[in-house]
């Protein structure tokens, strides 16, 4: 019978995994995806090559882990809002989206993809399929549920999700790609979310429902 790893060993493995992901993200950004070897990543992360290869056998697998880690949302800790109050639900999703986009490393991840996708289109596909789309789909499902509950009136939940997330990211995130010092303060971010919510309520809120 194979012995199960202890809590200590699981914690150490998780710490090493985090170190590897952080080192790889920085090296991919500084030296490019093609110009960074797994050996350099192991050295920068302070782990042996054997430890790195045990967790990630290829750079592609490591990049997939980076994307998944940055877009990870724990459904148990952050379930979709219950339908019935469109305003409250959108406010919750909007705040969570801001937290996701402004977490350390998210801007760097996008810069890596933007810089490397002409030569490595698979990086863009990974970012899209493993990162953006699963999160986007969760918002689309929420809006579809609000529509089914009668709190929203929309024919295209996919388009509504695109509009809502776009209004927030266009203020909170995308300027960071060009402006290194773009750091809107908390009041500006809160206002961006509030205005996006009000716009959605005006466009899609069903009359007489809570929050509309």
Automatic annotation (TrEMBL):
Matching Gene3D superfamilies: Homeodomain-like, Tetracycline Repressor, domain 2
Keywords attached to this entry: DNA-binding, Transcription, Transcription regulation
Gene Ontology MF annotations: DNA-binding transcription factor activity; transcription cis-regulatory region binding
GO annotation, biological process: negative regulation of DNA-templated transcription
The protein's name: TetR family transcriptional regulator
Pfam families associated with the record: TetR_C_7, TetR_N
Domain HTH tetR-type: 14-74
InterPro entries: Homeodomain-like_sf, HTH-type_TetR-like_transc_reg, HTH_TetR, Tet_transcr_reg_TetR-rel_C_sf, TetR_C_Proteobacteria
Superkingdom as given in the UniProt entry: Bacteria
DNA-binding region: 37-56
């Amino acid at each position: 019978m194979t012995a199960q790893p202890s809590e200590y060993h699981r914690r150490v493995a998780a710490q090493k995994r985090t170190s590897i992901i952080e080192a790889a993200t920085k090296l991919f950004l500084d030296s490019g995806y093609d110009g960074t070897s797994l050996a350099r990543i192991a050295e920068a992360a302070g782990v042996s090559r054997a430890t790195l290869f045990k967790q990630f056998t290829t750079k592609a697998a490591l990049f997939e882990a980076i994307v998944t880690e940055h877009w990870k949302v724990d459904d148990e800790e952050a379930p979709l809002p219950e339908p019935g109050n469109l305003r409250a639900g959108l406010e919750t999703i909007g705040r969570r989206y801001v937290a996701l986009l402004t977490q350390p490393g998210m801007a760097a991840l996008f810069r890596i993809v933007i810089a490397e996708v002409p030569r490595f289109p698979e990086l863009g596909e990974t970012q899209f399929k493993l990162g953006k789309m699963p999160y986007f789909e969760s918002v689309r499902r929420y809006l579809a549920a609000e529509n089914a509950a009668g709190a929203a009136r929309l024919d295209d939940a996919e388009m509504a999700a695109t509009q809502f997330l776009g209004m927030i990211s266009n203020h909170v995130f995308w300027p960071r790609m060009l402006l290194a010092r773009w750091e809107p303060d908390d009041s500006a971010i809160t206002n961006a979310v509030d205005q996006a919510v009000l716009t959605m309520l005006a466009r899609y809120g069903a009359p007489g429902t809570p929050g509309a």
